[in-house]
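pinned: reference chain
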Amino acid sequence: MNETNDIYDDEIRIIKREHPQSEEKKRFPQWLIVVLTVVILLLLCGVLILLSLDPKADTATQLVEQDMTEEIETVFDPVDVSENLPLPTWLGDYPDTTAVGYTQRIDTLLGQVALSIYIPYNAHPQLSIGQLDRKDGTIILAAQAADIRRDNKEIVGSFVLGGQKISEGISKTGYCAILDDVVMIGMAKNSSLYDEAIEKGGYFFRQYPLVYEGKLIENNPKNITKRKALCERQGQVFVVESQTNESFHSFAQALVDLGVNNAIYLVGSHSSYGWWEDQDHHRHYFCDSIKPRIYSNENYIVWKR
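pinned: its structure tokens
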């Protein structure tokens, strides 16, 4: 043959055709694909392990979860207060220290935040779980305390009831401990008061910290609703309720302006159940309905005469 394209009648030409996927195999070797897949799977497993072991990651998850006892409110009727009321001068000035246990209410306005202050006198503080007995005439002040998780309906954070450990966790760093009728409020990831409450038959629960050593503490939840707090000011403990819908920040700032030393959040919203009893033994409920939502782990801080 003089030319490569010439073929004699008694000859055949064998043409070798590449498989259409051969080029792809050359560009993407199978071993490389396998290696990349294994690496990706290992990375995913590592992330899952870290999330399950890292307490900070677990804390972050719990902080953003919606608590069953917290409601979001956006519409409210502000309290009609035409001018700022003077700061209360009730510290150390008990109206009647010999009277049968009762609760004093004082209203004040700090900036644009209207507050009601509830001060229990001659009563013993404690925690309780479950529906309150409305026939119990010894209760002079009762407010919902720790939040309940929406998913498993367990109490959020550590909770001790009469020395018995009910739950354990530090998703919220604020705490209240009750030992020998003394209420202690603070902020710490780990507090020896938790163990002491178990040892001495006391009480302990956790909530969002609002004020610590006179300074405002910021919190992640950004919803606007009615707020409650358990406060300590120069050794005196009381409950404060906002009469208007407030953010965590504006409510905590009002507590700072009130001169509160330490404060933690209590279950808020317009449907937060509880009551207080005045000096004439008249009961006043915090919400319009006297029938609370009932969950097995619904819990309260109460003062009994």
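why pinned: The chain has five helices and 17 strands. Residues 115 and 242 are 5 Å apart (CA to CA).
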